[in-house]
Design goal:
This protein is an all-beta fold. A hairpin with a 2-residue loop joins β8 and β9. It is elongated.
């Protein structure tokens, strides 16, 4: 249960409120943004996942909350400017309401599985 910022005695339903700033009375923290935007952890957010197999250069889309790379080929790939050897994998996670910028990769001469969550 949350209380309106104007200290009114009204209770609101955090699942249906829009366009308001609410305060968690237990912590005093402001929760900004609509429910489900990541500012209210009690409301589930539906995210889209993609899995692609790359054999050349590319970038992940901006705004991902997670990006993972697995080199399934026999030569090194480049991910974010660093070599990723055969059989190696790496995951980048955004925290809280943060998102990732685009991540450049180059899988020329190898195969790179690229998984993203938006």
């Amino acid at each position: 249960m949350f209380v309106l910022v104007n200290n009114g005695a009204q209770d609101i339903n955090a699942r249906t409120a829009t366009g308001v700033v609410i305060i968690d009375p237990a912590t005093g923290d402001a929760i900004t943004g609509p429910p489900g935007s990541g500012g209210d952890d009690t409301v589930p957010v539906v995210r889209s996942a993609t899995l692609t197999s790359a054999t050349g250069p590319g970038t992940t889309p901006a705004g991902c909350t997670q990006a993972s790379f697995a080199n399934t080929g026999v030569t090194a790939a480049l991910v974010a400017g660093a070599q990723l050897g055969p059989g190696d994998s790496v995951t980048f996670d955004a925290r809280g309401n943060d998102t990732l910028a685009t991540i450049a990769y180059d899988a020329t001469g190898t195969t790179l599985l690229v998984a993203t969550v938006q």
